[in-house]
Design brief:
By secondary structure, this protein is of the alpha/beta class. It has helices at 53-72, 106-114, 124-134, 159-168, 186-192, 197-200, 210-222, and strands spanning 2-10, 14-16, 20-30, 38-45, 86-92, 96-98, 142-149, 172-178, 201-204, 226-235, 239-244, 251-256, 259-267, 273-283, 289-292, 294-300, 313-317, 320-322, 355-367, 373-382, 388-398, 407-419, 438-446.
């Protein structure tokens, strides 16, 4: 059956700016259809909403599916499904009909598909019931249902318990959903199908893609597990990979800070088998928003399985960042040739005082949109007796942000120059670079306010 599952999930939907995520990659493969004969029931929706092009495209897709299975089992030349596998057709609207039993004749199967006409409501429960009844409990063949539907259940019993009973009997259920004018209940398809959903549920936005979906599913069902698997994962540049756990199958290697490679020698060759890899990423950018976790993921194996992984997104919340003081303007310098030494005049730098530069960052909490903030930073030096001496004060206006809600605002790079000749912290007065003790205080107030004088006059 080739690869029957490919999934990628993350453990959170929202993180802080420096937050981390656990990413899980999962893959399931099963043996081929020739050495493991399979009984397949196609369950086809012929309710009223299928009238016209959707029904025609579904018929084309179903017949393509039958041809691929026939060819893969070696029976295409004589018009039969080969190697012990069989296909049956069940269609449904108000009720379900067993259009064929489990048979091998390609022509009979295609004729049954061509005879379908659309009309009526949608009874998924009866469809699962009639499809389950086609299987022979004494047969050693693998059992697979492929349900196609374009609408919600509109009549009959709840289908979820009937689908669950079929799965309990060892039947693998695939669901192909078409988004139609009445929408599509994807949660219901996920509930009916065999887990994991990512490999057993396929959604197409229009009926034109149905043939391709049927073909891809049939191709994967016929493949022989998977060998020489290589998965290259590259995460969004806004993240870095911080750690990679040992997978339960194969080996995983970090290629650089944003990419890894997972090699699996073989999977699902003799029995259905799953492989899982977990790794951790951390957000390193300073921008908020809903972001894709991975930039790309590439899959290959010796059998040519077609595998697509989901692309999960996470909402990132970052503080507003303000840099009140610009960095010094750099002077360009180019070095050419093979000279042992180089003399360049870089211009003038003015030394204001012999001392140290103290650079501080501080976060103003809960600043609401459209509000400017008056901000002051006060620095004092403390002598050995606890007396404080002024070393500087900086006042500035923090511009208003336009985020949707009140946010924390990070003020970066508040710089003070503290001359060495003002050292009162208690070290040797003639020594440089003594330990010096300081205190920093911060004051912040909203500038923008709706305050105004009262317009009424109070009389007693």
């Amino acid at each position: 059956m080739g690869v029957t599952n490919s999934n990628k999930v993350i453990n959170a939907t929202q993180i802080d700016c420096n937050g981390s995520l656990r990413v899980t990659l999962a893959l399931t493969a099963a043996p081929d259809i020739i050495t493991n004969p399979t009984d397949i029931v196609l369950i086809l929706d012929r309710s009223g909403s299928m009238t016209g092009t959707p029904l025609a495209n579904m018929k084309t897709g179903a017949k393509t599916f039958i041809d691929i299975i026939a060819e893969a089992t070696g029976g295409a030349a004589d018009g039969e499904i080969g190697s012990g596998s069989r296909i049956g057709i069940v269609s449904f609207a108000e009720t379900a009909t067993q259009n064929t039993q489990l048979i091998t004749s390609v022509d009979t199967l295609k004729n049954a598909v061509d005879m379908l006409s659309a009309g009526g409501n949608t009874n998924h429960a009866d469809a699962f019931t009639k499809a389950t009844q086609l299987f022979d409990s004494q047969s050693g063949n693998a059992k697979v249902m492929v349900m196609f539907t374009d609408g919600n259940t509109t009549t009959g019993a709840p289908p979820a318990p009937v689908a669950a009973q079929a799965r309990a009997q060892g039947i693998i259920i695939y669901c192909i959903g078409l988004i139609g004018s009445d929408g599509l209940n994807v949660d219901a398809l996920n509930e009916w199908a065999t887990d994991p959903d990512a490999s057993h549920v396929a959604i197409t936005p229009d009926s034109a893609e149905l043939e391709e979906l049927f073909a891809e599913l049939a191709a994967n069902i016929t493949k022989t597990g998977a060998t020489n698997i290589v998965i290259d994962e590259t995460v969004n540049p806004d993240f870095i990979i911080t750690s990679v756990l040992n997978p339960n199958k194969g080996t995983a290697t970090t290629l650089n800070s944003t990419s890894l490679r997972w090699n699996i020698p073989e999977l699902g060759v003799s029995a259905s088998e799953s492989a899982v890899l977990e790794f951790f990423v951390r957000h390193t950018a300073q921008t908020s928003g809903t972001k894709l976790v991975n930039e790309s993921i590439k899959y290959s194996d010796a059998e040519g399985n077609v595998v697509t992984f989901p692309a999960p997104t996470v909402s990132v919340e970052c503080d507003v960042v303000v840099n009140p003081e610009p960095c010094p303007v750099p002077v360009d310098l180019a070095v050419e040739g093979c000279s042992d030494s180089l003399v360049v005049d870089m211009g003038d730098v003015y030394l204001e005082s012999v001392g140290r530069i103290i650079q501080m960052d501080v976060t103003i909490k809960n600043v609401c949109p459209g509000k400017r903030v008056a901000f002051a930073a006060i620095l004092t030096e403390v002598d050995e007796n606890g007396m404080e001496y002024q070393r500087g004060m900086k006042a500035m206006t923090i511009p208003a942000h336009n985020q949707a809600t009140c946010r924390d605002v990070l003020i970066k790079c508040i710089k003070f120059v503290v001359p060495e000749d003002l050292d009162v912290s208690g070290g040797s007065p003639s020594a440089m670079c003594n330990r010096r003790n300081f205190k920093a205080r911060f004051i912040a107030h909203n500038i923008d306010t709706d305050y105004r004088c009262c317009e009424s006059v109070l009389t007693l």
